[in-house]
Amino acid sequence: MQPIAIRDVSLNYDTPGGKVQGVTNVSIDIDASEFVCIVGPSGCGKSTLLNIIAGFLTPATGQISIGGKPVTGHGMDRGVVFQDFAQLFPWRTALGNVSFGLEMKGVANPERDRIAREQLRLVKLEKFTNSFPHHLSGGMQQRVAIARALAYNPSVLLMDEPFAALDAMTRDDMQRLLADVWKETRKTVIYVTHNVAEAVYLADRVVVMSAHPGTVKTVMKIDLPRPRDPLSVEFLDCQKQLMAHLGHNTNGVAH
After folding, report:
1. Rounded Cα gap, residues 168 and 157, in angstroms
2. For the whole model, what pTM was predicted?
3. Alpha-carbon distance 71 to 55, whole Å?
4. What's the rounded Cα separation, in Å, for the pair 25 and 36?
5. H-type alpha helices, 70-227
6. How far apart are CA 210 and CA 159, in angstroms?
7. Which residues does the chain have with pLDDT short of 50?
8. Is 152 exposed, middle or buried (0-12, 13-18, 19+ CB in 10 A)?
9. Which of 44, 156, 231, 233 has a CA positioned 20 to 30 A from the CA of residue 92?
10. Which residues have a Cβ under 8 Å from the Cβ of 210 and sit 6 or more positions away?
11. 115: Cβ–Cβ under 8 A, 6 or more apart, which residues?
12. The predicted structure's pLDDT at residue 34
């Protein structure tokens, strides 16, 4: 797995009303196999930063390197999972979706089939290999998306609020599943979320961003043993600390 170095990255958007700051002078070091969550108010540049790391956007200034190599565009060293269920190909089965990246890499069958089935097993969907996306629940579709992102063995997994559209119980299940998958694969993960409890449950460290001008406000280490108990006093204390960094009233419940 690869470490990530983000150095003085800035990006502005051109809009009809003029330039809008996306991110400004962002610098972060992320260790190999580390799970990092990015939180902050809407418009603070969380998704912009993730898209720059993915290579979908080019920063105006600064540089990102993965394993010492500069990011110059999207590469097979990064797997991406979005919030939108429509990221899956509706005409492909679960197995067909997961094997897509392997096809792009030129991996031949039966190796491609073997790897895709193994990834579906990892996300507990081995019984649904021949199901099409419209036959699967939202949570199951996101599991297919995670399996697809992992199948071609990227060193970095980038996730942009992948569970935000799910109901609370499914979201909790998916968080536990992702924690298990990360423990088994040891990928370097960067995960964007609005959910404070989710960040505390998943992350080794949480990057807190502030809006206008989209900078890193602080980085908080989550020093809790895994698996984590969301009802423990220590977990709730971490939630309160993180909410304080975000400027929220810590007497309320985090959402």
Report:
1. 23
2. 0.90
3. 7
4. 19
5. 94-98, 100-104, 111-122, 138-151, 168-185, 196-202
6. 20
7. 250-255
8. buried
9. 156
10. 40, 41, 44, 216, 217
11. 99, 102, 107, 151
12. 96
Spatial contact of 49 and 124, defined as CB atoms under 8 Å apart:
no
Q: What is the pLDDT, as a whole number, of residue 248?
A: 67
CB 125 within 8 A of CB 140: yes
CA atoms within a 13 Å half-sphere pointing along the CA-CB vector of 193: 26
Sheet arrangement for strand 18-30: 18-30, 4-15, 61-66, 69-70
Q: In what order do the strands lie in the sheet with 156-160?
A: 78-81, 156-160, 188-192, 35-39, 205-210, 215-221
Q: What angle do CA 157, 219, 251 make, to 5 degrees?
A: 110
Q: Tell which residue, 153, 101, 99, has the closest CA to residue 130.
A: 99
The pLDDT of residue 152 is: 83
Using CB atoms within 10 Å of the CB of residue 72, give its burial: 0 to 12 exposed, 13 to 18 middle, 19+ buried.
exposed
pLDDT of 73 reads: 85
